[in-house]
Amino acid sequence: MLNKPDNQNAPLIVNEGTIFNRKDMIKVLDTLDTVEYTHFVDSKEVAHGQGQVLSIFASHESASLIVNNCLYLNIMSFNYLKFYLDGNKKTVVELISNDHLLRLKAIENLIGQEKNLRNLRRPLVECDDETYSLLEELEEEEE
Fold it and tell me: Is residue 55 classed as helix, strand or coil in its secondary structure?
């Protein structure tokens, strides 16, 4: 007879879900490359464009930035993340804070983009010391 686990299994989330764990937020964001972004404040669209996700990190000191078609995303800028597939089966990720929503929709490549800028990103496993320490602290607080 097999022993039944204590129902302490980690969740399995497929194609849509809501994520509060910061490490899981990084994993979801790391699947994105070229995106169409829309920024909403108090449910009003304030910015829209396309760009590439170049950096995903955790810091209490740095801002999330979108500049020159490049996205630098600080997961500490957001309370949680939602993701789902749209009608065209493209992944949509929504980063949500109190009155801000940043919607990222996966797209193929920027028109005219010859070089994939994603190669400039550091691999996730090589988090800087601040990101790694902060994620460890947050994990301890969750326990």
Answer: strand
d(CA 125, CA 139): 17
Q: How far apart are CA 47 and CA 68, in angstroms?
A: 13
Structure tokens at 48: 């829209």
Angle 38-41-47 (CA atoms, 0-180°, nearest 5)?
35
8 A C-beta contact, residue 30 and residue 23 = no
Residues 6+ apart with CB under 8 A from 39: 45, 46, 47, 48, 66, 100, 101, 102, 103
Q: Across the chain, how many H-helices and E-strands are there?
A: 2, 8
pLDDT tens digit sequence for 32-86: 999 999 999 999 999 999 999 999 999 888 999 999 999 999 999 999 999 999 9
For the entire predicted model, the pTM comes to: 0.76
